[in-house]
């Protein structure tokens, strides 16, 4: 449940048991981390930063600090407002293209502060909300296929650098976020169609990508169930209803009109761990 399996390998190991996770994405994953301001360590596994849009830990922080039994050092390059490529869809910088560039600059050489190998490093990507959402607000078509072309070019770049473990999170059903309550049915129908098109193409393209790169462990982590589970029973997760917002991240399911609170992030993190336990964690 929650994860599509593209390939499987044995649980990764390293000489000291340390694992590395590299995250690319947008505000649903960002923590304010900047690599030159301090590296992740055993005492601070997420490194510097600590600014999220969940009111506390987001899914990446929960995976790193709460839901696994190994030491995971996470390099979270995700940036609030990011898209895959700002030349295709407007968004904040650094976009994912730039984020991968930072990996190439600071981590690809397997430096002393992050001596990773192909078995103990996982790349997790959660992107697409702004690639679909920004065109929605702008009233233009989302160039989904062109964006995904670039997405998978970036994955190939990472593979060529020695990365062999990937987890790609699907675009969540963000049409249910409070910011969309007043949108018309026709507009929301188009938004939902684009989300579905993105996720369908993501899965099929990952199958092709895996077939073209032997030895890859690649998984799709489905996020829809995590979101709808909370929305269908908000009181179970401490909220009065499915649309209230509160920046404390716990009183409501939504941190603000666009961003999920901690309960939804916890469900996403658990789905992530359920899918990766035994193949990476």
Automatic annotation (TrEMBL):
Q: Which Pfam families match?
A: Lipase_GDSL (PF00657)
What keywords would UniProt list here?
Hydrolase
Its recorded name reads Carbohydrate esterase family 16 protein
MF terms in GO = hydrolase activity, acting on ester bonds
Classification via InterPro entries: GDSL (IPR001087), GDSL_Est/Lipase (IPR051058), SGNH_hydro_sf (IPR036514)
């Amino acid at each position: 449940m929650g994860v599509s399996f593209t390939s499987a390998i044995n649980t990764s190991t390293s000489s000291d048991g340390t694992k590395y996770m590299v995250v690319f994405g947008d505000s649903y994953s960002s923590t304010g981390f900047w690599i030159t301001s301090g590296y992740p360590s055993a005492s601070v596994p997420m490194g510097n930063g600590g600014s999220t849009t969940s009111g506390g830990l987001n899914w990446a922080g929960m995976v790193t600090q709460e839901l696994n039994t190994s030491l995971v050092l996470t390099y979270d390059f995700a940036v609030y407002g990011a898209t895959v490529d700002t030349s295709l869809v407007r968004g904040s910088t650094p976009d994912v293209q730039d984020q991968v560039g930072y990996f190439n600059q600071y981590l690809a050489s397997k430096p002393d502060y992050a001596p990773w190998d192909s078995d103990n490093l996982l790349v997790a990507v959660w992107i697409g909300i702004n690639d679909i959402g920004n065109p929605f607000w702008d009233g233009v078509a989302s160039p989904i296929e062109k964006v995904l072309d670039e997405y998978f070019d970036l994955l190939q770049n990472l593979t060529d650098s020695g990365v062999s473990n990937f987890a790609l999170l699907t675009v969540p059903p963000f049409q249910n976020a409070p910011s969309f309550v007043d949108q018309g049915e026709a507009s929301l129908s188009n938004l939902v169609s684009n989300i579905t098109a993105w996720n369908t193409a993501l899965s099929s393209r990952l199958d092709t990508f895996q077939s073209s790169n032997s030895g890859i462990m690649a998984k799709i982590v489905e996020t829809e169930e995590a979101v709808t589970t909370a929305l269908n029973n908000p009181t179970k997760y401490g909220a009065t209803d499915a649309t209230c917002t509160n920046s404390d991240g716990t009183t409501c399911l939504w941190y603000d009109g666009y961003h999920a609170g901690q309960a939804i992030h916890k469900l996403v993190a658990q789905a992530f761990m359920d899918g990766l336990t035994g193949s990476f964690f």
